[in-house]
UniProtKB/TrEMBL annotation:
Subcellular location: Cell membrane
Segment forming the signal sequence: 1-22
Designated name of the protein: Cadherin domain-containing protein
Species per Swiss-Prot/TrEMBL record: Poecilia formosa (Amazon molly)
Membrane topology, from the record: Single-pass type I membrane protein
A molecular-function term among this protein's GO annotations: cadherin binding
The keyword Transmembrane helix is assigned to this record: yes
CDD domains assigned: Cadherin_repeat
Domain of life: Eukaryota
This protein's GO CC annotations: adherens junction; catenin complex
Broad class of where this protein is predominantly found: membrane
Length: 225
């Protein structure tokens, strides 16, 4: 006959990735010079950190076009999800972001730029599109995603190293495959204290409780008294 022993466990999640705020938040715009002679555009490709703690609207780059010399012109910006998030000064070509970005909601934006003759309203050059990539920071806590029972039955002859019937499914919605989404699962508190219960990682999302000793019903019962 199987006898069961009750254990009170408090399982803790620890996130490994640190926040990239601080010095890195002053490096919001990563600029690489890019020239396309056919379109005669000169621009910067942009990578912006999410949740930047800056004063908005915040200048992220400046557009240029080599066909504007001697011409009265204006810039236009468009793209899915751009309205209310990005804008361009139609005269200077300065591009602004107007609010904090959330990579988990929108990991990238495609911006399209036109340059128009002010008098004729015709395009001076073909439009140009490029992506604004949102750089991940560690801004989301890891969470258990499976439902836990209040109690589990464990056989008295469960040996050291055996899995216990307690799956722990963990998810962190920060960028997958980075330190920001890497977590460590540990047993923070246990009653009674023996046999000791540990956690073994099965894969990136699944962990399993494992015994680090042998279960003894009579010993456990005395410890609970």
């Amino acid at each position: 006959m199987m006898r069961s022993l009750s254990l009170l466990l408090l399982v803790a999640l620890t996130v490994l990735g640190g926040s990239t705020e601080g010095n890195e938040r002053h490096e919001q715009a990563k600029r690489e010079f890019l020239s396309r002679s056919k379109r005669r555009w000169v621009l910067n490709t942009i990578e912006l950190e999410e949740e930047m703690d800056v004063k908005y609207p915040y200048k992220i780059t400046k557009m240029h076009n080599l066909r504007t010399v001697g011409t009265e012109y204006e810039f236009e910006i468009k793209g899915a999800g751009v309205k209310g998030v990005f804008s361009i000064n139609e005269t200077s070509g300065e591009v602004y972001v107007h609010r904090r970005l959330d990579r988990e909601k929108t990991p990238s934006y495609e911006l399209t730029f036109d340059i128009l003759d002010k008098k004729t309203r015709k395009t001076i050059d073909r439009d140009l599109s490029f992506d604004v990539n949102v750089k991940d920071i560690n801004d989301n806590p890891p969470m258990f995603t499976n439902q836990f029972q209040k109690s589990y039955d464990v056989k008295e002859n469960t040996k050291e190293g055996d899995y216990l019937p307690v799956p722990l499914t963990v998810e962190d919605i920060d960028q997958e495959g980075t330190i920001n989404s890497t977590v460590v699962v540990t047993v923070a508190k246990q009653s009674p204290a023996v046999p000791k219960i540990g956690v073994k990682k099965v894969n990136d999302k699944l962990h399993q409780l494992v015994t680090e000793g042998c279960f003894d019903y009579d010993v456990g019962l005395n410890l609970l008294k």
